[in-house]
Every structure is written in C-alpha cells, then in structure tokens.
From TrEMBL:
Pfam families: MreC (PF04085)
Superkingdom of this protein's organism: Bacteria
Upper classification of the organism: Bacteria, Pseudomonadati, Bacteroidota, Cytophagia, Cytophagales
Membrane spanning residue stretches: 12-29
Residue span, Rod shape-determining protein MreC beta-barrel core domain: 115-260
Keyword match Oxidoreductase: no
Organism annotation: Persicitalea jodogahamensis
Gene Ontology, cellular component aspect: plasma membrane
Key words, A-Z: Cell shape, Membrane, Transmembrane, Transmembrane helix
Transmembrane helix is among the record's keywords: yes
Protein name: Cell shape-determining protein MreC
Family the UniProt entry places it in: Belongs to the MreC family.
Alphabetical list of Gene3D superfamilies matching this protein: Rod shape-determining protein MreC, domain 1, Rod shape-determining protein MreC, domain 2
Record-linked InterPro entries: Cell/Rod_1 (IPR042177), Cell/Rod_MreC_2 (IPR042175), MreC (IPR007221), MreC_beta-barrel_core (IPR055342)
Length: 280
C-alpha cells in the first residue's frame, strides 16, 4: 500500500496532466458535433474490430471440439451411405432384394491418427482406438476422402494400421466410368501415387476416372474412393495397362479416421477360406 501511495506521489504531475488531457478531450467531443461524430464512428470501428478478433480467437479455441463433432457426424453419414449402397446397388437388377442384415453389416468407429508415416517403403499409422473400442486386426480404415489402410495389430487403447502406402497392401478397386476391376497397390516412392493393375489394355480407360473399392472384398464397403486416374500407359509387350492413380487420402494432413466393422466378415472369410486354400 505504501508503495502505491509513493508511486502516485512521485508521478502526481504526470497523472494530473493525463487526467486534464482526458477531460479536455471529453469536453471537445461533448461540445462539438463534428468531433463527437468522428469519435463515435472511430470508436465503433475499433470496438467492432476487437469483437471480430475476440470471436475469431474463441472459434479457433473451439476448432478441436468442432472437428470431433464433424467426425462423429461423418460416422453416421458413412453408415447411412453404406446401407443405401447395399440396399440399392447401381448395377443390381430391379428385383434384387438384399437381406436386411447384409445391408446393415457395416459400422464405423471414429479414431484420431497420432502417428502417420509416408516416407518409408512400408508405412504405418497409429490411431488412438484399440480392443476396448471393438477394434480387431484385419478391419479396414478409411478417411473422410478415401481408403487409408487396414488394421494390423491392436492394444487396449491403440491400433497400428497398415497404410495403403505399403508395398504389401492391396485393395480391390473399380473404375467408375470404365467399370473395370483390378487391385491397387503402392509401387512408387511418391506418397500421392498408387498403381492399379490387371486392367486389360483392350478396355477404354479415361484419365480422371474415379477408382473406388469394389464389391469383391469384406474389408471395405463398396464405393469408397481410392483415387483418380492420373496417367494411363500402354506398353506393346503387355496385355494390361500401367495405370497411376492420385491417392484420394491426403496423408500429410490426415487427422481423423474411421475404422470399418463388418459384422459378417468372419462368416464370409470362413466360407471363402477353403477356396483360397484350394487355389494355392
């Protein structure tokens, strides 16, 4: 308290000068309509700017909650789209009536990517969901824009995902316009490009065509974006095209992912396993 009194005592002349300046300015504004209008217009401008900055700061601090809410909404939308595609496939005959359990077999669990690799020959992703959330090895993982990979291993709270940017990862895909099916695999060092194989060079492939997951797998729902045709090369000594795709998922900005739970995967894999063993 004594220090405060001493401060005012030591600076009393300066403080008195400031008070007189403020009082003079107030008298000027009150007695002159021009300066009064100028003051209020200027003060309103800066108050509005201050409120805008304050609102932007509040919105920025809420971005995490907003992103989490959007991710939860995407879970519902993904489930709805998967149901609609299974109930009314575009290439199905008019009298096709799918079993309700089959049409509703896909569920989605939202997770956050906490480690993403893109520079290795075999890249992995770690997410913050594990067995406690119902995640198991072999489940597909997608993003808001396309395929991400497949769960390799799990702990109680975390899972490691084999990325589509992995030399051994393949996903059965279909070209939307050409309606051709072939596996997609990463064969380059570029994390934005993957290759589509086994598409006959006697079929027409259009640059810019979308490649989506096909019906021939139990890991991903059909119709999930894999990429778009970047280039098509035709070698005379080969019967298939060399097709490069721009990857649909931007791994450099990957944040939230969706783990695909197929309720009927175990039954489907058990039925198909003898066929796979017979082919070997």
């Amino acid at each position: 308290m004594l220090q405060l009194v001493e401060f005012f005592s030591r600076n009393r002349n300066f403080i008195f000068f400031v008070l007189l300046e403020v009082f003079s300015f107030w008298l000027l504004v009150q007695s002159n309509s021009y300066w009064g209008a100028t003051y209020f217009n200027t003060s309103n401008y800066y108050v509005a700017r201050l409120l805008t900055v304050s609102s932007s700061i509040r919105e920025y601090t809420r971005l995490r909650d907003i992103n989490e809410n959007l991710a939860q909404e995407n879970v519902k939308l993904n489930a709805l789209v998967a149901r609609l595609q299974e109930r009314s496939p575009m290439d199905a005959p008019s009298d096709y009536n799918p079993d309700s359990l089959f049409a509703n077999r896909f569920e989605f669990v939202v997770g956050k990517a906490i480690m993403v690799e893109t520079s290795r020959a075999n890249n992995y992703i770690t997410i913050d969901k594990g067995t406690r959330d119902g995640i198991e090895p072999g489940m597909g993982v997608i993003s808001a824009t396309g395929v991400v990979g497949k769960v390799r291993s799990c702990s109680e709270h975390f899972s490691v995902v084999t990325s589509i940017l992995h030399s051994q990862f393949m996903v059965s895909s279909r070209l939307v316009r050409s309606d051709e099916i072939g596996p997609v695999r990463w064969q380059s060092k570029d994390p934005t490009v993957v290759s589509m194989m086994d598409v006959s060079r006697y079929k027409k492939v259009i640059k810019g065509d979308s490649a989506v997951t096909s019906n021939f797998n139990s890991v991903f729902p059909p119709g999930i974006m894999v990429g778009t045709v970047r280039s098509v090369r035709n070698r005379p000594d080969q019967t298939f095209y060399d097709i490069d795709l721009n990857v649909a998922t931007d791994f450099s900005n990957l944040s939230y992912v969706y783990v695909v739970l197929n309720r009927l995967k175990l039954e489907q894999d058990k039925l198909q396993q003898p066929l796979e063993e017979e082919r070997r």
